Amino acid sequence: MMPPAIACVDLVRRFGTFTAVDRITLQAHVGSVFGFLGPNGSGKSTTIRMLCGLLAPTSGQAIVDGIDVARDPESVKRRIGYMSQKFSLYEDLTVRENLEFYGGIYGIGRRGRRARIDETLERTDLTDNPDTLVRELSVGVRQRLALGGALLHRPRILFLDEPTSGVDPISRRRFWSLIHELTAEGATILVTTHYMDEAEQCDRIALIRSGKLVADGSPADLKRELMPWPILSIDCANPFEALDIIARTPGVRDAALYGVHIHAVVEDTAVADALRTALEASGHAVYRIEGVAATLEDVFVAAAEGDADA
Amino acid sequence: MQRVIELVRKEFRQLRRDRQMMPMMLVAPVIQLIVFAFAISTDIRNLPVAVCDMDRTASSRDLIRELTSSEYFRLIGRFDRHGDADRWLDEGRASVIIIVPRGFERDLKSGDTADLQVLLDGSDPNTATVAMSYLSRLIQSRSVRILSDRSIRSGRVAASSPSITAETRTWYNPTLASALFMVPGAMCVIIGMSATIATALAIVREREIGTMEQLIVTPLQSWELMLGKTLPYLAVGMVNMAAILIANALIFHVPVRGSLTLLLALGGVFLIASLYLGLLISTLSRTQQQAMLTAFFFLMPNFLLSGFMFPIANMPQVLQWATTLLPLRYFLVMVRGIFLKGSGFSEMTDQFWPLTIITVAIGVVAVSRFQKRLD
Ligand SMILES: Nc1ncnc2c1ncn2[C@@H]1O[C@H](COP(=O)(O)OP(=O)(O)OP(=O)(O)O)[C@@H](O)[C@H]1O
Ligand SMILES: [Mg+2]
Questions:
Q1: In terms of Cα–Cα distance, which of A77, A76, A78, A81 is closest to A99?
Q2: Could B219 and A88 be called an inter-chain contact, meaning their C-beta atoms sit closer than 8 Å?
Q3: Which residue in chain A is spatially nearest to B209 when comparing CA positions?
Q4: B17 interfaces chain A, CB cutoff of 8 Å
Q5: Are both A146 and A267 inside the same structural domain?
Q6: Which residues in chain B are classed under CATH 3.40.1710.10?
Q7: Which residue range(s) make up the domain with A238?
């Protein structure tokens, strides 16, 4: 079997006394999309920074393409592309100037560089504004440029830290089709996101909370393992107030708003009748209650709200 | 080296595009030079003088006319009662009071010593000292003995400052001769300060806005990054120096008696010391604001202790030792030597080697602290 493209072994990072990443162990296989999920401040970016050699781990190992990052960070840097969460290209340069600069830094020769830049502009849909100052670009276009900068030297391993935050749905879809294209070509991509539809598209997901790994597996695995209970989708009047009543009904393990509906994790679908009675007794018209398949969001909410030392 | 060139090219692109930085880096040094040379000038001009002539004779009028017709003093008023002198000084209307006592002409004519009283506003001791020396020279030329009731006021200067006559010759400048002293010094201070601040800010800015993070994940080596961020400012520093030399030739006409090439070459060495200092400061600061404050913390002693404003020989022994650590101290002596005395390199080895050693030392510390890491 091929060694994993990305691996963490008991990775720990402390800032002073605060532990941002707490013994994380995970593996991403060559040619896969690995999704890294967790609430704000759970340590996703910190983990990625250690994998890229930007931060030194307090303890544990980060291994990228078989190389220990702590031992040989420079070899790792040649093999990876990194798109940081905060936009980090030059706003006072144009799109093309940014790519030219990074092309030069990655040692792409003058002659080859032009063709490579054109190819990258094409791939990331930037052919319309190659000579615009980055300062003048919208968030979506900037993110595409940042991805272009990370792809320019054709790395086999890509770290994308919230690449689609602030990007509209159509652009997000394009972003993801590019991600699938790249993995089809054999690249390995570790991506963080807060969008569940994006998480569904990953081959494997790691869920972290307060620096600790909570769950790890394919989206289907996670749903099965973390959500063994049926879920009812409830459509009723005044869902905000109704949420409280539903949560207090016996047989309901958890309830959360899900768009304009409420998702209740129940021990048995038969609880539906009790819910209808309780809601109508308190004056909430019930339009519809039906069993639904667990989504990743259900899993995520359940895992994120679980007790911290679970 | 290819990567260093890319970095330098990028830095210049950004500089060219920055509407604030560019003028600040090229025009500001010239303006600073002008401000330094005029504002810190030790010459006095048009100092306001009030006169109390109690003698009212031809001799007293003659004397007063002669004293106040020079370009140094300007007669702004007269008063009759001796006691009003306080008011003129307190209200700050006059900096100098000349009182001619009754019997002045009689004493002169009878061959006795004629007395004259001069009161100076000592709240600015420098000006007071210079004014005193101008006055005494003017009066001496008329061979009149002054009653040196030099009630220098406001308590900051001892009432009978014994240094007045001693310093007369040092400070006396019949023309705008302080430019001779100020221009070379100001040039040194300005190019050093600009280079240090520009380098520190250039690096910290990238860290602050986040672009440094992207640079760090590239295969760029620490030394390449360092060179790429300092070389542009070495070039800017050399341009600054040239601009100041041109401004001097046009405005101040302080002649460069020695070799211009030597001056520029030494400027290069001093600039490297200043760039390293900027690099060091960048490793100590997280934000541009912090970098500015840290830079001032390092640069302030340069102003005060390098010999730019006060002669090192007059400082307490401990401070004199401290000055041996300042690159500016050595550069200043060499530059003044080249400007004023036409010194050649062989006369400067005592300055050149310490400067080189200190430059290397700052470089070693800065480079060892400059890590290609986020933390
Ligand atoms: N340089 C640092 N110094 C101190 N604390 C830090 C530092 N970097 C991160 N942290 C802390 O570590 C924790 C994890 O941060 P991290 O950025 O890894 O979270 P994240 O999962 O990426 O969150 P988000 O979804 O908001 O991006 C946070 O509490 C953060 O405040
Ligand atoms: Mg993050």
A1: A81
A2: no
A3: A88
A4: yes
A5: no
A6: 47-171
A7: 228-293
Nearest-CA residue for atom 6 of ligand 1: A15
Please name which ligand lies nearest the alpha carbon of A193: 1
**Signed CA dihedral, A50, A55, A57, A61: sign only:** positive
Residue A176 lies in a domain: yes
Q: Are B154 and B122 in contact (CB under 8 A)?
A: yes
Quick check: A251 and A274 in contact, CB under 8 A?
Answer: yes
**pLDDT value, residue A306:** 63
Which residue's CA is the closest to the ligand 1 atom numbered 27?
A: A40
Return the CATH number at A278: 3.30.70.100
Residues of A in contact with B375 (CB under 8 A): 55-56
Please answer whether residues B353 and B197 qualify as being in contact, where contact means their C-beta atoms are separated by less than 8 angstroms: no
* Pocket lining: A43 vs ligand 1, CB cutoff 6 Å: yes
Report the gap between the CA of A55 and the closest CA in chain B (Å).
6
Question: Where do runs of H (alpha helix) occur along B249-326?
Answer: 260-284, 288-305, 317-323
What lies within 8 Å, CB to CB, of B318 at 6+ separation is none
Query: Residue B375 CA: which ligand 1 atom is closest?
Result: 1
CA of A81: which chain B residue's CA is closest? B217
Domain count, chain A: 2
Atom of ligand 1 nearest to the CA of A194: 25
The 10s digit of each residue's pLDDT in B94-118 is 888 888 888 888 877 776 777 778 8
Q: pTM to 2 decimals?
A: 0.77
A72 interface with B at CB cutoff 8 Å: no
CA of A8 to the centre of ligand 2 (A): 17
Q: Is B217's CB within 8 Å of A78's CB?
A: no
Fold of B47-171: abc type-2 transporter like fold (3.40.1710)
* Distance from Cα A77 to the centre of ligand 1, integer Å: 22
Report the alpha-carbon distance of residue B170 to residue B164 in Å, rounded: 11
Helices and strands (DSSP H and E) totals, chain B: 16, 4
Task: Let me know if residue A223 belongs to a domain.
Answer: no
From the CA of A173, how many Å to the nearest CA of chain B?
25
- SS3 at position A166: coil
A36–B contact, CB cutoff 8 A: no
List of residues 6+ apart from B255 with CB closer than 8 A? B339
CB B323 within 8 A of CB B244: no
Residue of chain B whose Cα is closest to the Cα of A88: B211
**Shortest-distance Cα residue to atom 7 of ligand 1:** A15
DSSP E strand boundaries for A132-283: 157-161, 188-192, 204-209, 212-217, 231-236, 252-258, 261-266
pLDDT digits (tens, 9 = 90+) for A205-251: 999 999 999 989 999 888 888 777 888 899 988 888 888 888 888 88
- Give the Cβ contact number of residue B241 at 10 Å: 23
Which tokens hold the place of B324? 């041996």
Of B86-95, B105-114, B237-246, the one with minimum mean pLDDT is B105-114
Nearest Cα residue to atom 5 of ligand 1: A15
| Residue A170 CB neighbours (<10 A) | 9
ipTM (interface pTM) = 0.84
CATH value at residue A97: 3.40.50.300
Structure confidence at residue A284 as a pLDDT band (50, 70, 90): confident
Question: Cβ–Cβ contacts within 10 Å for residue B28, how many?
Answer: 14
